[in-house]
Write a structure and sequence with these properties.
mainly beta, five-stranded antiparallel β-sheet, globular
Length: about 170
């Protein structure tokens, strides 16, 4: 009897540019964990008729937090970094799915840093309000970077996220 397993996961890639010179300072990349809350939302939208979330929003966090499947929007386990000039979380502007993946690599989320801070990871959430954790949103996925990244006031951070779905065909 053939069985299959659906795998859903993605990769966050964070680029840091100097605002003064425009030069790339570093790149950090990390695989994410899709939370139980995110998987439930995906199933509800796909099979239960729940209204899709559109758009999704990107956030960065500044605590050294191991991401767990049980983290939720209301209890994310990390502290969001709100030290950037933009008034709201940047939108995740993804391309149409192709080859079982979608990405915002052509339209990365931009954060113009307003203070020197340390970034430990990134996440994809359903609401735009910076620092909000009580608004009834969805924490779809998050990733802790391998190395914490120090960013300076006026650094420009660009975040891409590529999500892939695959059936192992086993």
């Amino acid at each position: 009897m053939a069985q299959s397993r659906l795998h859903i996961g993605g990769v966050f890639k964070l680029f840091c540019y100097s605002k003064k010179t425009g030069k790339l300072k570093w790149v950090e990349e990390s695989h994410n964990l899709v939370t139980n809350e995110g998987l439930n939302h995906l199933l509800d939208v796909l099979l239960h008729g729940t209204t899709p979330t559109d758009p999704w929003y990107c956030l960065l966090f500044n605590t050294d937090t191991t991401i767990l499947a049980t983290h939720t929007y209301a209890v994310p386990g990390f502290t969001e970094d709100t030290n950037y000039d933009e008034a709201t979380r940047p939108e995740y502007v993804e391309a149409a799915a192709s080859s079982q993946q979608t990405t915002n690599s052509a339209s990365r989320a931009v954060f113009t840093m307003s203070a020197t801070t340390t970034i430990y990871g990134a996440a994809l959430v359903s609401l735009s309000t910076k620092g909000d954790v009580a608004g009834g949103g969805v924490l779809f996925c998050a990733a802790q970077f391998t190395n914490e990244k120090i960013v300076n006031d006026d650094d420009i951070l660009e975040l891409s996220y590529t999500i892939t779905a695959a059936d192992d065909g086993a």
